[in-house]
Amino acid sequence: MARPDLFLAQPQSATLEAALAERFTLHRGTAPATTRAVVGGGSLRWGATDCDRLPALEIVAIHGVGHDGVDLDAARARGVRVTTTPEVLTDDVADLALALWLALERAVVANDRSVRDGGWGVPLARRATGRRVGIFGLGQIGRAIATRAAPFAGWIGYCARSAKEVPYQRLPDIAALAAASDVLILAAPGGAATERAVDAAVLDALGADGVLVNVARGSLVDEAALVSALERGVIAGAGLDVFADEPRVPAALRALPQVVLAPHQGSATREARAAMEALVLANLDAWLEGKPPVSAIA
């Protein structure tokens, strides 16, 4: 029996591609009309036109948790299942959020650079213990960040679409959260509802002693406003794992010493990537067997 056609919308690891090749006929670059499955990453852009080009399409399997670039309504209307890989990367993204925050507060990157250049004396850094931490988005990742921050944060607040049963203070909007926080950590999903949620007004509210950490989506931040705020000292620094136009990072951000940059590596651990790949395959295997996918969102 011929193997179903699968379109690799974005390159995957050699391990995952090899496993997919055992189950499917893989296509890159152009998807044939007989394509029944699509695999892409969290930055995949897939809309109604894409679905219409592939009349045999039945499933879009995302290797990641982000799906703001996928038109779920269009997929549902055409009977196309959409799956993601939730939960298995929660701890790793939360760990990175704390790492970026601590690297900012203690000037770890700047100090490393100084020592490598033969220096020793460096400006004093800032104590992380006791800082007020605001988390925008309190889903699984946001809660994991809060759990990690709780032992030494002076206060934890959050902003989310609904109240959660947690011992943290809920603020009505992101501007109020920023005003109450020393550290603003972004963990909300992307999409129209959160696009440029961090604008000039929010950065002003965060203040000259505040820092921003983004492990969510680059679309949540007005990058031009962020660069301006950093250059003018409106906020003290930023730790960024995601950007508006990846992999292109604005030169102005790369030039600022009070910014810690990472290449969208929240899930980049051996353990998380192995679990994500296994879940992609589990979703596709279930579909091939005529069963409901393991982690479908549409």
TrEMBL record:
Domain (D-isomer specific 2-hydroxyacid dehydrogenase NAD-binding) spans 98-266
Chain ranges of the D-isomer specific 2-hydroxyacid dehydrogenase catalytic domain: 52-297
| Record-given protein name | 2-hydroxyacid dehydrogenase
| Lineage: superkingdom | Bacteria
Family designation: Belongs to the D-isomer specific 2-hydroxyacid dehydrogenase family.
An example Pfam family from this entry, by short name, is: 2-Hacid_dh
Gene3D superfamilies reported in the protein's UniProt record: NAD(P)-binding Rossmann-like Domain
Q: Which organism is it from?
A: Sphingomonas citri
Sorted alphabetically, the keyword list is:
NAD, Oxidoreductase
InterPro entries membership: D-isomer_2-hydroxyacid_DH, D-isomer_2_OHA_DH_cat_dom, D-isomer_DH_NAD-bd, NAD(P)-bd_dom_sf
